[in-house]
Specification:
By secondary structure, the protein is of the alpha/beta class. The protein has two domains: 4-96, Elongation Factor Tu (Ef-tu), domain 3 (Beta Barrel), CATH 2.40.30; 107-213, Nucleotide-binding domain of ferredoxin-NADP reductase (FNR) module (Rossmann fold, 3-Layer(aba) Sandwich). Helix content is 19%, strand content 35%. The protein has six helices and 16 strands. The radius of gyration is 18 Å and the shape is globular. The relative contact order is 0.14.
């Protein structure tokens, strides 16, 4: 799949919580090509910030040629993005990486924190394919976002660290408390959550796909800044590594060591 680098137009931007923002970007080719689980590289205009920021694609509106990113402000680059208004330009490259394989099975879609946004496009695609057995389990620190949008595509269960909504605890606590069952896991979120889900899937003999979060530099697999340990020897680096940006960010759970 070809990667495109372009100067795109911001269609709209909204603030979802104190530090979470949603931006729609006009990018017809990317909207047409992308699959759930892929990401784009977003380049700051401040040239003192040399590297692009990798941000998951939350939605792709193929009909109108737009993509949506939902991101957390964590530093200077994302703080700059949060100030963009409709009509502003933004330099982006994508779609990047490999997405989730779409399978017709009872599926858990599990997102933790800023790993929740890519679950929206995945849920839309599974729903369009007739997947009526989609169960979403979302883990938050406290403030909720995107949960109501996800409810359009299946049952949503929530876990919060402070117990302010849903199950008090983590996503596995919510699965167990509600007696939820599935045959397949799709997940994106922090490494401790993914590690626990990998173990849970092995225990339950479930197919499991994990989208790994990692700081990236080039975004195209050349620099080896975003590697994870793998079971097999990588043909590029000739060691037990996978490049998250190029080989991932989605991996079958048994492929990687967390």
């Amino acid at each position: 799949m070809a990667q495109t680098k372009l100067t795109a137009i911001v269609v709209e931007q909204n603030q979802l919580s104190d530090d979470i923002f949603s931006m729609w970007i006009e990018a017809e080719t990317m909207a047409e090509q992308c699959v759930p689980g892929q990401f784009i590289a977003v380049y700051p205009k401040d040239r003192t910030k040399l590297l692009p920021r990798p941000i998951s694609i939350c939605e792709a509106d193929k009909e109108n040629g737009r993509i949506r990113i939902v991101y957390r402000v964590v530093g200077g680059g994302t703080e700059e993005f949060s100030g963009y208004k409709a009509g502003d330009t933004v330099e982006i490259m994508g779609p990047l990486g490999n997405g989730f394989p779409l399978k017709d099975k009872r599926a858990f879609l599990i997102g933790g924190g800023i790993g929740i946004p890519p679950m929206l496009e995945l849920a839309k695609n599974l729903s369009a394919a007739g997947g009526e057995q989609v169960t979403m389990v979302l883990g938050y620190r406290d403030t909720l976002f995107l949960n109501e949008e996800l409810e359009q595509y299946g049952r949503v269960y929530i876990a919060t660290e402070d117990g302010s909504a849903g199950t008090k605890g983590n996503v596995l606590d919510a699965i167990r408390e509600n007696g939820l069952e599935a045959d397949l896991i799709y997940a994106c979120g922090p490494t401790p959550m993914l590690r626990a889900l990998k173990a849970y899937a092995a225990e339950k003999n479930m197919e499991c796909y994990l989208s790994l979060e990692e700081k990236m530099a080039c975004g195209i697999g050349a620099c080896l800044a975003c590697v994870c340990k793998s079971k097999e020897v990588d043909g590029h680096s000739h060691v037990h590594n996978k490049r998250i940006c190029k080989d991932g960010p989605v991996f079958a759970a048994e492929e990687v060591e967390l």
